[in-house]
Amino acid sequence: MEAKVYRELGLNDQEYQRILTILKREPTPTELAMFSVEWSEHCGYPRSRKYLKLFPQTGKYEPLVGEDAGGIVYDGTAIIFKMESHNHPSQVEPKQGAATGVGGIIRDIFTTGARPVALLDSLRFGQLNTPLNKYIFNGVIDGIQFYGNCVGVPTVGGEIYFDDAYAGNCLVNVMCIGVCPQTKLARARAGGVGNPIIYAGSKTGRDGIGGCSILASSEFAAGEIEKRPTVQVGDPFTEKCLIEATLEALETGVIVGIKDMGAAGLTCSSAEMAAAGDVGIEIDLDKVPLREEGMEPWEIMMSESQERMLICVEKGKEEKVLKVFHKWGLDAVVVGKVLAEKQAIIKQNGQVIAKAPTEELAKAPLYDMAFKKPKHPTSNLKIRTNADHNIQLLKLLSDPNIASKKMVYEQYDHMVQTNTTVYPGGDASVIRLKGKEWGIAATTDCNGRYCQVDPYTGAQIAVAEAARNLVVTGAEPAAVTDCLNFGNPEKPDRFYQFKSSVEGIADACKFLELPVVSGNVSLYNESPKGPILPTPTIGMIGIIKDINKRCSVPFKDNGDLVVLLGHTRVEGEIPELDLDLERRVQLACLEAIQIGMVKSAHDLSEGGLAVALAECAILAGKGAVINLADPLKDAPLLFGETQSRIVLTIAPDKIFSLSDIAMLYQVPCSIIGKVGGQKLTVLRGKKKLIDLPVAKLKARYFNALPELLRKR
Amino acid sequence: MKFGVIVFPGSNCDHDCYNAVKDVLKQPVEYVWHQEKKLDHLDCVIVPGGFSYGDYLRCGAIARFSPVMEAVKKHASRGGLVLGICNGFQILTEAGLLPGALIRNRDVHFICRHTDLRVENAKTPFTNKLKKGQILNIPIAHGEGNYQCDKKTLTELKKHGQIAFTYHGENPNGSVANIAGILNKSKNVLGMMPHPERAAEAILGSADGLGILSSILNTR
């Protein structure tokens, strides 16, 4: 075979040689296609797998590290969650790329038997000052609302950052959470020789062919628009029916295993289901429902048409399952069976057109990648210490990275399913579970700029801040999913960023007793404009033991004391992180909230203390008078981003109990002011550092993003 | 009082309505599949929100042809109560049970947020526990909630007290006369864009929707 043929599919020379060794002959086009997708970075993680083993898999709660998506068990309930990227498709075709990103991760969740109950989106774009960047931003938001709203899963949170490093390669990371009784969890494996394999859902078309192996496994070169046909097209209506039908079909109790057809479609789902069950599988392509005529067998096997499931059912009981899918108006047919021989056998017109060992297909090569610490990024940050702090605060609140994303999350249905109890716009969102006393808090976090300066510390800060985001709602951080977005791993400086970030996450998670239960790696995020900032996005869930004691950001009552937990330092290029202090601050805050004394709580992050106080005031429509006695200079005191700090409010009579808790955990705790009035006033003694009406802060905070988008 | 919640493929507020009736109102309730043809045993039928049949065409344009809608029409014509929420409201206008139409929001995108509603007619089976002029905080979540009708219809609606709710303060979607919900002439059919089932418990941010749901129990 000519090298050109397999190279076009993303296979290198050694990989082709390995295929020859496995098959002891030249592969057929279908076999070649199957190996190429299974061994791609997107499916088989050949370049990243080695480091992913560093992640801890145990924590405070019983972990579930599953075949499609992992989770934890709490109170007999399995909470399944995972985050996945759809970066490359979204850059090429923003609306459908983002929409199918939502659809794909939802399928990963309900294929485990869990009902999807919440979505979060972590997004990165270039600055909104070019028509292209605006187009991609608007397209991605449109795709998320188009799919998420229709499918009926609330989009409760997430984050958006703008930086020109993402201008040639946006990031769309979607996290989905699902719940079900632990006893109802489904497996993603085939089993029982002779058991039938059912194909259910949408018909297979030519969309998304090569999406994972070609699109997501190389950098963007010039002329990326040609890759548009590799992007799949989403149909949220079919997905909604597929959710209901799948959960109903699982109730029949005759399903042995089930897997969604995501990246690499039928190839991946069939081979991996068989490999997981230590069996073989036979698929008859003549039976696969097709959207168009004349599709080549390799096209059918590689298609990434959305909204499809593969199901292994007990022999003789297939009618029960087929009936459910037909009731929901979906295609469902028996397309194959489980084999004893551990081979994936693909037939068409009675002929075997592909035959490959399932274990080999599912076992991608493992590479040791070279890494080298990159040159320190040059910083062009200028800190003006003597500027007017009122102007500085208003500027920060208008910065699209800090300004309210209300215009975005109001386009998402964040209330459907009637569980959302803390809405988006705060540190973390909270959902209740009907009939339970407890609830789930969820957040995503990553500061790519920190990670660029120091990927190890930056990744640790992402973990610490995600945990802090949960703690301020009253949740105990419970488990982590991640989406590791980096540049081309074949370049040693990029791989260094990946490796260091993974080590940072692993160490922070071990320290904070958080298992990493699922995740996704997205490499090759670069374009002619350069690589993205290293962005190891952390998705985290926490448990609020008593949902009635949940806490939120806005100030509550006049006269309440404003208290700062933690202390402010002068930082270098990025803040330092002391994990031990971080843990103690979190424990102190959590205990105070659980006792019920805390009226509001907010994590300090981008923009520091001044921005955090402004957000508490803006969201409450209520001011505060703050008096700072710290000897630090004004600018770092107001805007410094020292980690491990939380600002909270309590009724004045609770101050001694709060001090006791702070003392117990050896956490600095200082009263810095009082809630009240219509202005945010920050004093140092008699000197006014900040003095602004809440209405003005509010206008800047909410109007900044819409104004930026309107600007030509 | 026996409730039924219609389930079209693509409905996504069916569970929410079911739960609000069962767990909050504590009334008997059942799901009604879109192919059902009989609703004789039900007192109140809820046509829930969502994207019936995907709504890739005009919202509710396909749902109006489903077998269950014939049954809903019969149910309404014999005086049975019908509550259409969001997509349900769109379907009721498409099916001719309510006048006018719901078009794309003024700002041409989906909006999910809490809104203030003013009760315009408190003498209906859906509002008898409320007071005229009372303000209710109930969320909306729609892309096509901009209610429009011709002048003659609007005059009729006003004349017969068919406007149930209007948006108080900001009009979120551009509806004519700030209309958020309307009734048929005999007041046994209500269509509204805001979601009372999403405001049935304080933990969700507002329990004002309960005033509407519990009014229904007062009618018999």
Description:
- The complex is a heterodimer of chains A (712) and B (220).
- Chain A is α+β, with helices and mostly antiparallel strands.
- Chain A contains 24 helices and 28 strands.
- In chain A, helix 19 links the parallel strand 17 (476-485) and strand 18.
- Chain B is 22% helix and 26% strand.
- Chain B is an alpha/beta fold.
- In chain B, strand 1 (3-7), helix 1 and strand 2 form a beta-alpha-beta unit.
- The relative contact order of chain B is 0.17.
- Chain B has 5 helices and 11 strands.
- Chain B has a single domain (3-219), classed as Rossmann fold.
- Chain B has helices spanning 14-24, 67-77, 87-94, 151-159, 209-217, and strands at 3-7, 29-33, 44-47, 81-85, 101-103, 111-119, 135-142, 146-148, 163-168, 179-183, 189-192.
- The interface between A and B is medium-sized, with 30 and 32 residues.
Q: What's the β-strand tally of chain B?
A: 11
Put simply, the count of helices of chain A is 24
Largest sheet of chain A: 7 strands, mixed
Number of helices of chain B: 5
What CATH calls the topology of chain B is Rossmann fold
Percent helix range of chain B: 10-25%
Going across the biggest sheet of chain A, name each strand in turn: 8-10-7-11-9-12-13
